[in-house]
Amino acid sequence: MLKTARTLALIAALAASPLTPVFATHAWAAGDVVIGLDANIVGLDPADLNDNLSMTASRTMLQGLYGFDKDMKMIPVLAESTDANAEATEFTVHLRKGITFHDGAKFNAEAVKISFDRARNPENHLKRASLYQPIKSVDVIDENTVKITLNAPFGAMINNFAHQAFAISSPKAIAEFGKDLGRHPSGTGPYQFVSWETDTLKVKKFDKYWKPGLPKIDTLTIRSTPENGSRLAMLQAGEAQFIYPMPPELVKVVEKSPAIDVVASKSIYARYVAMNTLRKPFTDVRVREAMNYAVDKNAFLKVVFAGYGVPLDAPLPSNLAGYSKQGAPYPYDPAKAKALLAEAGYPNGFETVLWGGNSTITQRGMQFLQQQFAAVGVKVQVEPLESGVAAAKIWNVKTPEEATTMMHYTAWSASTGDADWGIRPLLYGKAYPPVLFNTSYYNNPQVNADIEAGLTTADAAKRTAAYNDAQAIVWKDAPWLFLVSDDNIAAKSKKLSGIYVLPDGQMLTEEAALN
């Protein structure tokens, strides 16, 4: 309630003022840029991360064979080119020459092999090992050529290479720090590690960066600021030059500022509530359908995101390759929700718990849902969780039986840009935590078969058919409360250029410049 009051006070103050922030001159003179984000960084080892903020932090320092430009079009990075056989089971990657890691180690084929083999080794228990699942072997052909052989055809493997989880760590750092690599990152990126505290990461310009003329700033700091009002206040005061997400309810006011630019773009986020299908009452599809009918998606979008986005009409967002529209979004129909609950044996509703993050926007979303559920007799206890607590309660469970999750408010963006990573981590019967992120504990044999069919073929038509079928079944089974695909909204000083929010919510910072 205090945070909400502070945000409302800020809205009132902004509306009544000409919004003329004073920027801290020392930051410009030193070539320093500060980014304010809405959650804590939980690690810096890209093979062991499952959140976009931490991935963004690692991206400042570590690069992969492939990556994305600001429009999320795939581009070669440490690879010059790749030759694939017709079956899409062998990928021969030709590497850039003359590149060094921050710690002085040489980037070459052996470095790629060491990094990939570490990430895909199940004994290391790294969170992104499943992305490496298709790989059978990594072989050094010569100093600047590596061959990656798959267990089966997979036409989207290069999309996987572009995921930040495939960023390559220094072999020297891997050998020296082992399990503590995430505290001692060393890559080939534009910035090198300086320090990381609970809520602040600082990196500095890497003078031997392989791209001429980059980076253009001396230091970059990422600061965790979960509260919307505080994050915007940092930007106004010149304590930050870029913030994400921008509080959507303040966009219309901030757009009038002569010193701040608001940047809005379409995302590939699917925002949803996972219902634990192994625990009553969510074992009953009628209850899950009722939860979908109980929520007004358009009102949710307006209240939580100021209308920036669209309601989901499929398990995948419309901007993601492989999306298949399933008709209109679940309509708002509280009468039907009550009827379904009564039919399922809950005429007076039930009580349950909703978990989610602790940022202002997330809490607002959960509170809106709480009110909507109450109208159909479902009493929901809302519990915002800090990142570390969420990891312990949601992600670090050993078996489904140990999981105490009932409802989990979250969002997902497939950072490979492909349908496989939009479905498999969240809806595959073998993707329960801690392996992946299926917090609905959903397990449908036909959906599993569809996911496996899409994973093990290079035939585009067959992959499309498999993912279309999977989406149709998931939509009918309703393991999620399908909410919205909200837009990415950031704000920045007009003096800053070269920082971009990708459709998946991660950020590019290597071109950052102060004018």
Protein described:
The longest helix has 18 residues, at 460-477. 30% of the residues lie in helices and 22% in strands. It has helices at residues 2-16, 25-30, 52-59, 109-120, 157-162, 171-177, 228-237, 251-254, 285-293, 297-305, 334-343, 360-374, 387-395, 420-427, 445-455, 460-477; strands spanning 32-37, 66-68, 74-76, 79-84, 90-95, 135-142, 145-150, 191-196, 200-205, 219-224, 242-244, 260-265, 269-275, 309-311, 351-356, 379-384, 407-413, 480-486, 488-493, 496-497, 500-501, 507-508, 513-514. The protein has 515 residues and is of the alpha+beta class.
**Kindly state the mean pLDDT as a whole number?**
92
**Structural class per helix/strand content?**
alpha+beta
Main beta-sheet strand count, sense and barrel state: 7 strands, mixed
* Distance N to C terminus: 39 Å
Enumerate how many helices there are, as a single number: 16
Question: What is the global morphology?
Answer: globular
Task: Provide a compact summary of the structure.
This protein is of the alpha+beta class and 515 residues long.
Question: What is the element layout, followed by pairings?
Answer:
Elements: H1 2-16, H2 25-30, E1 32-37, H3 52-59, E2 66-68, E3 74-76, E4 79-84, E5 90-95, H4 109-120, E6 135-142, E7 145-150, H5 157-162, H6 171-177, E8 191-196, E9 200-205, E10 219-224, H7 228-237, E11 242-244, H8 251-254, E12 260-265, E13 269-275, H9 285-293, H10 297-305, E14 309-311, H11 334-343, E15 351-356, H12 360-374, E16 379-384, H13 387-395, E17 407-413, H14 420-427, H15 445-455, H16 460-477, E18 480-486, E19 488-493, E20 496-497, E21 500-501, E22 507-508, E23 513-514
Parallel strand pairs: 1-10, 1-11, 15-16, 15-17
Antiparallel strand pairs: 2-3, 4-5, 5-7, 6-7, 8-9, 9-10, 11-19, 12-19, 13-17, 13-18, 14-18, 20-23, 21-22
Helix pairs in contact: 9-11, 10-12, 14-15, 15-16
